[in-house]
User: Fold this.
Amino acid sequence: MTNSNENTYLVVGGGIGGLATVLSLANSGRRVKVLEQAPEFGEVGAGIQLAANATNVLQHLGVMDKISEIAVFPKRLVLMDAYTGNELAALDIGETYRERYGAPYVVLHRSDLQRILLEACEEHPNVDLYTNQKIVETVQDDDTVTATSANGEVHTGKALIGADGLWSTTRQLFSDDQPECSEYVAYRGAIPIEEVTNIGNLDDVYMWIGPNLHVVQYPVRKGELYNQVVVFKSSQYKKEIEKTDEWGTPEEMDEVFAKTCDKVQTAISYISRQKRWPMYDRKPIDNWTDGRITLTGDAAHPMLQYLAQGACQALEDAPYLANMLDKHNDDVEKAFRAFQEERLPRTADVQTSARQWGEIIHAVDDTSILLRNTVLANHTVNDFQFIDKYHGYKKLTNKVEA
Ligand SMILES: Cc1cc2nc3c(=O)[nH]c(=O)nc-3n(C[C@H](O)[C@H](O)[C@H](O)COP(=O)(O)OP(=O)(O)OC[C@H]3O[C@@H](n4cnc5c(N)ncnc54)[C@H](O)[C@@H]3O)c2cc1C
Assistant:
């Protein structure tokens, strides 16, 4: 079957980044076709933190009211020592934060975010959604791009945006790089709030840190569920077994966290052991655009989750891309170049900073830990200098400067 429309934008991948891109393009009057490989659009059963640079975009996309109905608006981001149980530093992410950045910090269930973006796409007259479309080949000529799926369906459009995530097929057009394994694994999940005890203040987002490990906790879905992410570096990791489940096992998790404080031990006792997520990123590349094809979200700039900025950066991409198309009157080659010119250096910086922040929170040697904790002890709750450049970004269009 051939689906051809030369004025249509093809978006490969219907994750958070892909759907936000679709909505941005559709809201600005463009026809968009979403090609998702899975039989259904969906997200993992865990939470996500969205800083002001992301909620600013969600406001721009017109979905923030729905997000607000289901999200939690935490008041503090708190760094805790996973062994002593002591508070190391806290940051106000309540009213002062909202006034500073013009948008709130929210935490919510990924499936709630995905559903709200998906519903907005489904209701949009400019959007066509296709599932079971694993795109295996993408080719372009002077006027069109053609994407072919594994089941033989062919989709032709004016341009193509690869929003196909960390393992992106579209990225292979620009780079032969591979995702790099960090040797860390995550276990995560959200459980009914009434089933958890020995947790902290429900207005706080907690990050418990220690050598080679951390745990993140916060409520989601209006406070009905409690989300937890448990992360550690596996000493069992070896390149030969990277693609197996033989490293970073639940048994290793128990050993690694055995001497942590009570509250962290409780977190471990609640965490789902069914599925483990090995943590990957890639180094920044210097080009992700060629003619009528570009990348967005994790396909373009996958990063470790330590700054909670991966989806935020994917969301930032979306309106900027639409605005470059506006600015260049849908001359896609010029618009995609302009998009990359702004977005590549910014996201490369966040990718690199995420790795560095990982080194800091997971510090192992005594001197680094002492230095870090001393700096943190001098940090005040309203000192936003560390996050200004991430959370304060407002360059959604070529008209609004940060
Ligand atoms: C443990 C963990 C915690 C995190 N926490 C946060 C956080 O708190 N805040 C934050 O901002 N970020 C966080 N992130 C990062 C965030 O999850 C990602 O950056 C974000 O989900 C990327 O969205 P995306 O749409 O670009 O890619 P994805 O979500 O990976 O979506 C890609 C989509 O493309 C589809 N696809 C793939 N290949 C093809 C193909 N060939 N054809 C068609 N479809 C295809 C996939 O099925 C999928 O639907 C975290 C990540 C992890 C691992």
In short: The chain is about 30% helix and 25% strand. The chain has a mean pLDDT of 95. The longest helix spans residues 332-361.
